[in-house]
Batch of 3 targets.
Target 1
Amino acid sequence: MAIVVRIDVELARRKMSVSEFASRVGITPANVAVLKNGRAKAVRLSTLEAMCAVLDCQPGALLEWIPDTD
């Protein structure tokens, strides 16, 4: 099972840079990179809420569950 973070898709749709997004959400650009690259083990709900507010989207637009292919 894998949870894929689709921040890059939403940023591209809005033509928003990673640095602008990070600044508006209140996290570092390095933490945005960790999320985008799938290295994050957890996301605080307050951070997810801020990301959704900045991007004007639902959590499902940012997170996708992909089942294992056994």
Note: The domain at 2-61 is CATH 1.10.260.40 (434 Repressor (Amino-terminal Domain)).
Target 2
Amino acid sequence: MVTLKGENIYLRALEPEDLDFVYIVENDEQIWEMSSTQTPYSRFLIKQYLEHAHKDIYEVKQLRLVICSNDDAVLGLIDLFDFNPTHNRAGVGILIAEKESRGKGYGAEALELITNYGFTHLHLHQLYANISEDNGTSIKLFEKKGFNKVGVKKEWNLVKETYKDEFLYQLIYVH
């Protein structure tokens, strides 16, 4: 795989050693809202997922990469999902796991790396992101990286008995 290295971080493929990290992230109820998760994942299921993580994006329509600092600390995950080679588009999602690591530019750098990868290596025409109306941090990040708000899905997600709007952000590649 192409090395996805920035100034302060790099992106790498999932490894079997990431089991504990992915298990903790996927079972953190505070982020279930962002991922539309409803139930916990077992270590067994996550182990199976990691065993198949090497599969090609053209086969599984997803690419999940680990965000690491230059000193090899695991910071988070970034995904291309709903990859559609017919229409040359994919969704993008990002998570910096630890609150102490947020606001330091790691997310912006990871988003820039995956965006460049998507446009140059996967020949995508566009990337999109679905962001909850109250996720100001993600809204600010995606807007900073050139994504435009193109739509509102009214009362899209039910969270703790309250319906929340979800914003659709899009970045179209300009040649």
Note: The beta strands are 4-5, 9-13, 63-69, 74-84, 89-96, 126-132, 148-159, 162-172.
Target 3
Amino acid sequence: MNFQVTVLKVLVSYPGGFAPMDDIKRDMAILATSGRDWSDRTKRLAARVPELDIFSQGLVDRESGGWKITDKGRAVLEFMEARTLIDQPLVVVPAETVYATTVPPLPPLAERAKRRRERRERRREGRERARSTAS
């Protein structure tokens, strides 16, 4: 987990971008123990800004009792997250192709009614067998 990216993500989730230290610690502990996905995500985001230093670059200000993300911090975070969309190729598939390959056509109505009737009969037979063995 990348500490500095996590701090930016935590602060941006608070109204006004300010969070008391106790809240920051609690949120960081939750994210640190949330699993590998969060760790991998923060590493990917941090790789987009290799020289990241949230305090010396003015991305986060220390205020009484907590930290606050600055406008510059928000811009850097948006930059890190926007790059993930640019890195992935955009694939456009016509809707006809998607629907044709993922949704099989329904069987004719008479065949569906026949299947439904057969299922009902099997359930009825199963209930009758269960009653006869229970007696």
Note: The chain has a mean pLDDT of 82.
